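Table S2 (text version). Query chain:
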Amino acid sequence: MCTVTYVPLSTGYCLTSNRDEQIARPRAIPPKEYTINNYKITFPKDQKGGGTWFAKSNTATVVLLNGAQEKHIPKAHYRKSRGLIVIDLIASPNVLETWQTISLEGIEPFTIVLFENKKLHQLQWDGVAKSDIELDTNKAYIWSSSTLYSKEIRAERSQWFFNFLEETTSITAEKLCHFHQFTENENTEFGLQINRNNILKTVSITQVVDHLEKNEIHYIDLLES
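Corresponding C-alpha cell output:
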C-alpha cells in the first residue's frame, strides 16, 4: 500500500505493490477468493481492519496507497478504514462509477490505482475533494506513499524505477518483483524494502499479472520465517 508500480506488458499489464506497515499489526491473511455482493473478488485481508490494500475481480484491479498528493496530519478518529473503501469499490458493478458517488467524508486521505475496462486511473481523496486522472496504459508509472516518503525521496525512487526499466531487457513480472524486493536493499529508510528500527517494515509484496489471457495474483509474505 506504500509503493506501487504499473508496467504495460506485450499483451497485458503488471501491477505490483509493497505494503509498509507496523510489524505490531497482525499479519494479513494471504490472498484468497471471497464472494461479496455476488462478485468474486481475490485479495489479501487485513486482519485488523477487515479490508485490503490490493484487490482484483474479473473486470478490475484496485490498489491502495496511504495519503494523497501531500502528507497530511492524521486525525484521532476516522469513520471507516480505507481498506474497506477498496472493498466497497471493487464489489460494485463499475468501480469508476461508484467512485463518483461514494461518500468519503470522515475517511483518511488515500490514493487508488485502478485498472478497469482496459483503462488506467489514478483516484485520490485528499480529505476534502476527490480527483480522477486517466493515465496512458502504454506508459509505466510508480507511486510512493506521501505519508512515508517526502517529495524529494519520491522523486529519487521514481528515478530508480525508470533506470531499472531502461536497463532491463524483456521486462517480466518476476523481474518487477525482484525490483520491488531488492532495489537499494541496504537503504532501510527509503529503499524499496524498508526496515525502520524494526517497527515499520515492508511486510509483503502483492502483484497482479494480466498477460496472455491469464489474470493471476502473486503474494510474497516478507515476514515469513
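Notes on Table S2: The chain is about 20% helix and 40% strand. The chain has a mean pLDDT of 94.
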